[in-house]
Amino acid sequence: MPRAAELFMQEYSRGLAALVGLVCGLLLAARRFGRHRGRRPADEARRLRTLVDTTFDGLIFERDGRIAEVNQAMCRLAGSAGPTLVGLRLVDLIPGLVLPARIQDQPTEHAVVLQDGQTHPVEVLWRAEPDGNGHVIAVRDISRQRAAESKLERLVRFDPLTGLANREQFLQQLQKTLAVCERGGGTVALLVVDLDRFGALHETHGPAVAEQILLQTARRLTGTIRASDTVARLERDTFAIMQVGTAQASDTATLADRILTEMSLPFLVDEHPVTLTASIGIALYPSDATKAPDLLRHASRALRQAKQDGRARWRLFELRMDLQTRRKRSLESDLHAALNAGQFSLNYQPFISICSGDITGYEALLRWDHPQRGRIPPSDFIPLAEECGLIVPIGIWVLETACAEAASWDEPAIISVNLSPAQFIHPGIVDTVAEVLRQTGLPPWRLELEITESTLMDDTRNALRVLTALKALGVRIAMDDFGTGYSSLSYLRKFPFDKIKIDRSFLSDVENDTEAEIIVHAIIAMSRSLRLDVTAEGVETQPQLDMLQAHGCTFAQGYLLGRPCPADQLEQRTSAISRAAERHVARAT
Ligand code: C2E
Ligand code: CA
Ligand code: CA
């Protein structure tokens, strides 16, 4: 019972005890006063009767195991008139009520048998009458309280929107089922079902529609399972199914397929069809885990995999997923120490002007040399640093180091620095850039910041404000990885870019895929019309460079022209790169 209810019950019992105490006291007083002051017993009886009838709780006067008297509240409670009750055996009205000689100090729970045979929950407390003949019994109706308790219990255990079991209840049930299986054998499959892009649906259609979708999802899921299986709503748009006694994993696969099919059917909300999909993660008892929380964790991990693999599908948990998660967590904890331990360094990769073959600038690329694991690629640790917020201090370090390095060069080459979305939306970004420029003395026009489209998508208005402020400092802005995201022309028009960088995936396809060449051509033409520079990334072969030059691309970057290298190798590399670049460009013209 919740603590508040417990306290309430204590108060409540005290009230009942006070009532029997009062009645006994009154009986005693009535007799004494009657004796001393010569009052007539009839008067006393009338007074006592009035008092007894005005109490809310039922009162029974018992003699020799039978009901000698009841008050009106007791009649109401028992649904019978007084004369019907008087003379009845007490145990016929309240079965199991035995009145022992000793004083009862805590109320006990019983049921009053109504005339129609139904029962009514009550609480009972009694005292022996002062003259030792019989008992006074106070009876309190607790049906409302029981109803409130069961309502409270429902609230604690069940999701109020869908009526399905909630997370706590489901985990308890799962644990119980697993315990039964442990003793008697058997298998359990846990499926975690999550709606895809529910946040976007909520934003587009509003909370009322989202609620309808959740309700209908609950109905559909309940409709797909057998009576022995259980559905629960774990959180917002995440549901779980416990499938008991699956003979084989293929049973679960069949259920998962059925759910995906069900969920892909349009939802009708206010007669409008809304389509969505769901993803499912599955973990099996006993092969994947034997404890309920572990099974849920594994199913959730499999769900994440399903989402990563493109959503609208199911994935079975595999041990490798758990290993990946553990590796990620341990990498994350190492990442916290890496900055102070000086494990980061920068590599610089040149980009050249296609028409002159000159090195125009360098892109700073972060490297992490882990003391045990060796060099970890940025694609592994940058997303992790973004997730845990470390990208902000790491990004400041990159900016300071790259700008200080560039400021020391004789040639006024451009230095390009990548900015993650998390860095970009960090409130201090403009001040940080201004401060780094001031400290390093690098002229602002030599700094180029590379951002991706995803940076602009979440909060366009803020992005425009930050970009405008950065531009006002005099730095250049490049759109990185163009062609991989939404590649929206409107972004190029709306935001003050200086350059776009064509993603290297187009270059790798260009030799075998005419469509890729058409896209590259279109991007170059579009950039020219918007007066933007274009860098093609990932140039690895001469034919790629030839093609870029033929289409009028301004800059090129890639292994053909120079691999990323540390700052101390830049000087000797630069001359070699320049010679190579000149040769390649000469060939291209
Ligand atoms: P990105 O900004 O697209 O960087 C270019 C990536 O392409 C670099 O990989 C580079 O080494 C690689 N690359 C250059 N030329 C070629 C080529 O000819 N062929 C191929 N196959 N690859 C080439 P890297 O250094 O592994 O960086 C990967 C990504 O990590 C970067 O992609 C960028 O998104 C991120 N990153 C790197 N450094 C930083 C940083 O300091 N801050 C942030 N926020 N992100 C960074
Ligand atoms: Ca980049
Ligand atoms: Ca890029």
In short:
The chain is α/β, with parallel strands linked by helices. The protein is 50% helix and 22% strand. The chain is built from 23 helices and 22 strands.
What does this protein look like?
There is one protein chain. This protein has 589 residues and is an alpha/beta fold. The chain has 3 domains: 146 residues, PAS domain (Beta-Lactamase, 2-Layer Sandwich); 158 residues, 2-Layer Sandwich (Alpha-Beta Plaits), CATH 3.30.70.270; 262 residues, TIM Barrel (Alpha-Beta Barrel), CATH 3.20.20. Helices cover 50% and strands 22% of the residues. The chain is built from 23 helices and 22 strands. The strands form 4 sheets. An 8-stranded mixed barrel has the order 13-14-16-17-18-19-20-21, surrounded by 5 helices. The protein has a 5-stranded antiparallel β-sheet with strand order 2-1-5-4-3. Strands 7-8-6-11-12 form a 5-stranded mixed β-sheet, sandwiched between helices. Helix 11 links the parallel strand 11 and strand 12. The longest helix is centred in the N-terminal third of the chain and has 35 residues. The chain is elongated. The N terminus is likely disordered.
